[in-house]
Amino acid sequence: LMEAEDDGLFIAILKKYFANLDAPLYPNSSNPKARNLTKFNELMLVAFREFSMITNDTVEDQRRTHQLKVVAGIESFSKRSALRNLKSTGAFSKDEVAVIYDKYYSALYYHQRSNEKKDTRMEMATFRRFLASLTEWANLTRDEEHLEREGPKSSGRTFMERLFQYFDKGKHGQLSLQNCVSGLDELIHGDLSSRLKVFFDVHDIEHDGSLSKDEIVQVSETLLFLMRGDDDQDDILASISGFINGAFQFSQSNEQKADGTNEHFNLSFASFSEIIHGDDKLRTFFERDFPESFNFSERPVDRQKHLGREIFDDLRNDGTRFAQVGTAQTSTAPRPTRRSSSSQSVPTVEAEPMSKKAHARSAEAYRDAVTASGAVEDTDDLEEDEGDVLEEVNQLLNEFGHDEEDV
C-alpha cells in the first residue's frame, strides 16, 4: 500500500485483501481448529495487538480533520476518471479539458434543484449557463432576458438552441461531456472554412444544403447578437448590411413564377463563404474574434470555489444521514447503564464486558490454532515466531481479563 502511487491501484489492493479474509490461515494443518481459522482472525489479533491505542474518538477526530480534503479528493478522482473516459479531446490541452469539465458539472450542479435526481447530461437551459461560463456573448443582459420573457425568443437564445441541437449528434435531446468537448473543438479549433461550415449548418434548419431567405435573415440577426459587444457598431452594421445584399445577389432560384420573379432564395455554402471572405470585418470575426471569445483559463480563486457548495451539501447530507441513524438506534436500543459524558445528548450503551469477552474468544482461538499449527511446522524460525505470538496472545488475554471458563 505504501508503494502505490495511483488511487485505483490503492483501492484494488484493499479490495483484493478484504476479498480473501475468509481464506484459511493454515489450510494444510492436521488440527481441525487450525484449518477453521481464517485470515480474519489474524486481522483481529493484529488490530488489537498493534493498534489498541486507536479509539473511536481518535477516528472521529481524524474524520473531522480530513473530511474536506477527502471530499475534494473524491471530486478530483471522479474528475480524472471522467477525463480518462473521453473518447476524444480534440485539440484541447489537458488543462483546457479540465476547465470544460469544471464548467460543465458546475452548470449541472447549480441548475438542478436539491430534490431532483442528479444527472450527468445537460438540457438546453443548462447548456446556456454552461456557454455563459465560457464566453461573454452568451451572457444575456437583464434587458435581453426581460424581452425574452415578454416577447418572442431573441436571436441569441435561438442561436444557442440551434448550437445545442448541432452538438447533439445522437438527437437525444441532452448533451454529454463528450458532446460538448467535441462540439467546442469543432467550433473553435477548425480553420476558417470549417468554422464557416459549422455556422452555415447551424442555420440550415431544413438541412437541404442551402440557406433560404428567412435563414439568411436569421444569420444576420445572429451576427448582430454575437458582435453586439464590439465598439465599432457602425462598421458592424455596414458589414452585416453588405452580407444581406450580397446573399440576395448570390442566391439562386430553384423555382420561378410565371412573371419571372424569384419565389425561393437559396444561398449555397460556397456563396456564403465567398461573401464572408469578401468582408474584412466578418472575416476577422470568424477567423480570430469568435474563437478567441472563449475563455478556457480559470482564476486560482475559482479553482476551489466551484467545490464550495458541493462540499457543504456533502457535509449536510452526511450529517442528516447520521442523525437519522442515531435517532433510529436511540428508539430501538435498550436503556443505557451509563452515560459516557454529561454533555452528550444521545446516551450510549455500555457494551465493554461483551467486547472483552468477544476479543478474548478471538484471541484464544488464534492461540489454539497457532499451537496446533506449530505442531506440524518443522522450521526453527516458525517456532521462534510462534513463541512470540503466543506470548503476545497471552498478554492480550490478560489485558481483557480472560478467564479459561469463559471460552
Care to describe what's here?
The chain is mainly alpha-helical and 407 residues long. It folds into three domains: 1-82 and 353-407, no CATH class; 93-189 and 296-326, no CATH class; 205-294, no CATH class. It contains 17 helices and two strands. Helix 8 (155-167) packs across helix 11, helix 12 (233-250) packs antiparallel against helix 13 (269-277) and helix 16 runs antiparallel to helix 17 (380-399). The chain is elongated and about 100 Å long. Residues 253-262, 303-307, 329-356, 372-383 and 402-407 have low confidence and may be disordered.
Radius of gyration: 35 Å
Mean pLDDT: 75
Helical content class: 55-70%
Q: Tell me the number of structural domains.
A: 3
Task: Please give the number of β-strands.
Answer: 2
Q: Unreliable stretches, pLDDT < 50, 5 or more residues? A: 253-262, 303-307, 329-356, 372-383, 402-407
List the total number of helices: 17
The helix/strand class is mainly alpha
With strands numbered from the N-terminus, the spatial order across the biggest sheet is 1-2
Biggest sheet record: 2 strands, antiparallel
Percent of residues in beta strands: under 5%
The rough form would be described as elongated
Distance between the termini: 36 Å
The H-and-E topology, N to C, reads as HHHHHHHHHHEHHEHHHHH
